């Protein structure tokens, strides 16, 4: 059981600031995803934790020990790389046994045999032990890389986009396998990904990064349903979130969001809802807007594009100056050019300050 | 049908062309070899016999009587030591240049390339003075040091190029798995550099084994004389006697040809190793 703590950690490469003062607490046994676009600082964070880079300032703690000055081999961590980094001149068995044979570990040969076989069986690769990495499929290589990390029973697992080289189906299966693995071994896992779906499905906590700064740290539920700023709101979610610039103001005593072609009443119990008019950006996800060809609301728009997404349709609807993505029933048989009525779910409204991009709801916390 | 005939014609053309190339490349060798096992009076017979009607090893015996084994031994010792030294230093230097960003790295790389492009003739006089001053004239050690100095840059360059093709993640993985930088190099990286080592080793071996100019300048005694120098002295010693001369040529070529045949598979993959994924 090992916790990880970053405090005021800074790192720059030349004039590029990769990480601008990171504070992050990872509890023992947590599965934390570091989520962000490329260049956001998530991989830098992982490499700092692994000891592959040295921090410019700040403290990195694993357990209770400050590890800034420890080399990677003395940090009690294991890592799975994006390209797996299997040793090409060793068999699968030798690859998995490699960490056990490091100097100072002192495992007896019989013990190594037992541990490697145990790990291989738990990953379903026991039949591949005599093969070489180049003779394996991508998914099998992935499992071997996981096995090599598991066999040492490290305090912290680091995974660097381990699924990004797999095809889509396999990725979804490996997602479940890794989650099951975490449920079984209960180790602390730090998982770097740019795929928000991976982060949402597997993690207990997500840390969203952008431009070298931690944007939000919370459970997948919090990240998805209470984004602290426009970046998080937009980055997390299958589709881009709909952003509509407009004004919050009172209409007949009810707080209402007004934008060209739109007038939406807002839940009045939200604490930040003063009746003073102010500029705001409404963020609303596809699944919180529903399009119907029949009358049902006063908001009317023109369908520009329709996609079939499994059990339902996603329609892109033009309203005023903005195009909104919204759900529609399969049976509605929408076509582009149709006029539709839109209903909005006020429970899923996220309001942001257009200047700071911060959430208006978050400002009261 | 005409399509098939065209393919056939092209195949035949290629075959004939290859035969011509093989003839030009191998005919002198074969002729030299067959002459070296002919009795002296048969060698200049017109028309020459490619397959000698009478075989004799008299010329090779003459060579043995004239200390050829000592000269071969000298060449072998000098070449082997040069190869080991070049690979030893070149591998570490190439690794350092490939993996570490240190002050003066670019300068070192420029120097390496520059040194490669200085012709040996221009270096003969200064290195002679140097070797004479430190008392290594007429020693095998002196030759080894000089050959190493001449060949090291190309070894560094080949190794550097090859290290650059090996993903850094492999080292990172090994270090995280609990190995020090040096252990990582020994157990993970070096086993992967075999092709590059063989390629640069063969390169160094050929130049050291075949070198005449440096050896003839730096040595004078018989005790440390290398094979190419010895062949040259045979020329003065035997005069126009083609038999022993050709036998000497065969003896000096054979080991290199043999080693190339043994390692040719690795040599090719080492030479192309830098260009495609390793």
Automatic annotation (TrEMBL), chain A:
GO terms for cellular component: ATP-binding cassette (ABC) transporter complex, substrate-binding subunit-containing. The keyword ATP-binding applies. SUPFAM superfamilies: MOP-like, P-loop containing nucleoside triphosphate hydrolases. The keyword Transport applies. Residues 4-236 form the ABC transporter domain. GO terms for molecular function: ABC-type transporter activity; ATP binding; ATP hydrolysis activity. It is found in: Cell inner membrane. Pfam families: ABC_tran (PF00005), TOBE_2 (PF08402). Its main location: membrane. It comes from the Bacteria. GO terms for biological process: carbohydrate transport. CDD domains: ABC_MalK_N (cd03301). Keywords: ATP-binding, Nucleotide-binding, Sugar transport, Transport. It is a peripheral membrane protein. Belongs to the ABC transporter superfamily. PANTHER family: MALTODEXTRIN IMPORT ATP-BINDING PROTEIN MSMX (PTHR43875), OSMOPROTECTIVE COMPOUNDS UPTAKE ATP-BINDING PROTEIN GGTA (PTHR43875:SF1). This is Multiple sugar transport system ATP-binding protein. The lineage of its organism: Bacteria, Pseudomonadati, Pseudomonadota, Alphaproteobacteria, Hyphomicrobiales.
UniProtKB/TrEMBL annotation, chain B:
One of its GO terms (cellular component) is plasma membrane. CDD domains: TM_PBP2. Its main location: membrane. It is a multi-pass membrane protein. The chain crosses the membrane at residues 12-31, 76-95, 107-131, 143-163, 184-206, 212-235, 242-263. It is found in: Cell membrane. Residues 72-263 form the ABC transmembrane type-1 domain. It comes from the Bacteria. InterPro entries: BP-dep_ABC_trans_perm (IPR050901), MetI-like (IPR000515), MetI-like_sf (IPR035906). Signal peptide: none annotated. Belongs to the binding-protein-dependent transport system permease family. PANTHER family: INNER MEMBRANE ABC TRANSPORTER PERMEASE PROTEIN YCJP, MALTOSE TRANSPORT SYSTEM PERMEASE-RELATED. This is Carbohydrate ABC transporter membrane protein 2 (CUT1 family).
């Amino acid at each position: 059981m090992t916790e990880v703590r970053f405090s005021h950690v800074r790192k720059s490469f030349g004039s590029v600031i990769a990480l601008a003062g990171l504070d992050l607490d990872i509890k023992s046994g947590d599965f934390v995803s570091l989520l962000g676009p490329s260049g956001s600082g998530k991989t830098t964070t992982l490499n700092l934790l692994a000891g592959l880079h040295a921090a410019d300032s700040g403290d990195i703690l694993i357990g209770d020990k400050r590890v800034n000055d420890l080399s990677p081999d003395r940090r009690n961590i294991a890592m799975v790389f994006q390209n797996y980094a299997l040793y090409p001149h060793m068999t699968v068995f030798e690859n998995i046994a490699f960490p056990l044979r490091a100097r100072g570990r002192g495992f007896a040969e019989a013990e190594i045999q037992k541990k490697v076989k145990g790990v291989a069986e738990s990953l379903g690769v026991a039949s591949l032990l005599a093969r070489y990495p180049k003779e394996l499929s991508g998914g099998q290589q992935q499992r071997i890389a996981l096995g090599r990390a598991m066999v040492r029973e490290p305090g912290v697992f680091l995974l660097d986009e381990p699924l990004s080289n797999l095809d889509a189906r396999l990725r979804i299966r490996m997602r479940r396998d890794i989650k099951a693995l975490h449920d079984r071994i209960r180790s602390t896992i730090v998982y770097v990904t740019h795929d928000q779906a991976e982060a949402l499905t597997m993690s207990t906590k997500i840390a969203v990064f952008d431009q070298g700064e931690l944007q939000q740290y919370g459970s997948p539920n919090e990240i998805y349903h209470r984004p602290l700023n426009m970046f998080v709101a937009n980055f997390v979610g299958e589709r881009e979130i709909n952003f509509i610039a407009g004004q919050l103001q009172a209409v007949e005593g009810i707080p209402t969001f007004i934008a060209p072609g739109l007038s939406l009443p807002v839940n009045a119990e939200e604490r930040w809802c003063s009746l003073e008019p102010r500029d705001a950006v409404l963020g609303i996800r596809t699944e919180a807007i529903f399009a119907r060809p029949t009358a049902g609301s006063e908001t009317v728009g023109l369908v520009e594009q329709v996609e079939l997404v499994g059990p339902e349709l996603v329609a892109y609807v033009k309203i005023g100056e903005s195009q909104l993505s919204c759900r529609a029933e399969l049976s509605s048989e929408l076509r582009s050019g149709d006029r539709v009525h839109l209903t909005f779910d006020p429970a899923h409204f996220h309001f942001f300050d257009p200047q700071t991009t911060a959430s208006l709801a978050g400002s009261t916390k | 049908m005409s399509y098939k005939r065209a393919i056939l014609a092209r195949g035949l053309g290629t075959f004939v062309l290859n035969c011509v190339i093989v003839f030009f490349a191998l005919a002198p060798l074969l002729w030299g070899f067959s002459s070296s096992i002919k009795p002296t009076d048969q060698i200049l017979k017109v028309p020459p016999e490619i397959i000698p009607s009478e075989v004799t090893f008299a010329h090779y015996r003459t060579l043995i009587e004239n200390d050829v084994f000592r000269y071969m031994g000298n060449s072998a010792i000098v070449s082997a030591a040069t190869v080991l030294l070049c690979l030893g230093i070149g591998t570490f230097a190439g690794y350092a240049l490939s993996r570490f960003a240190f002050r003066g790295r670019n300068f070192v790389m420029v120097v390496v390339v520059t040194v490669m492009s200085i012709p040996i003739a221009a270096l003969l006089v200064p290195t002679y003075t140097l070797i004479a001053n430190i008392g290594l004239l007429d020693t095998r050690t002196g030759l080894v040091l000089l050959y190493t100095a001449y060949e090291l840059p190309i070894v560094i360059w080949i190794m550097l190029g090859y290290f650059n093709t090996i993903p850094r993640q492999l080292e990172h993985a090994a270090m995280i798995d609990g190995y020090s930088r040096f252990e990582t190099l020994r157990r993970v990286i070096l086993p992967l550099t075999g092709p590059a080592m063989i390629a640069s080793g063969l390169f160094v071996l050929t130049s050291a084994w075949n070198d005449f100019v440096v050896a003839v300048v730096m040595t004078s005694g018989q005790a440390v004389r290398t094979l190419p120098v010895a062949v040259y002295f045979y020329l003065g010693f035997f005069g126009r006697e083609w038999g022993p001369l050709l036998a000497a040529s065969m003896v000096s070529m054979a080991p290199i040809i043999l080693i190339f045949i043994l390692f040719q598979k690795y040599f090719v993959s080492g030479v192309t190793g830098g260009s495609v994924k390793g």
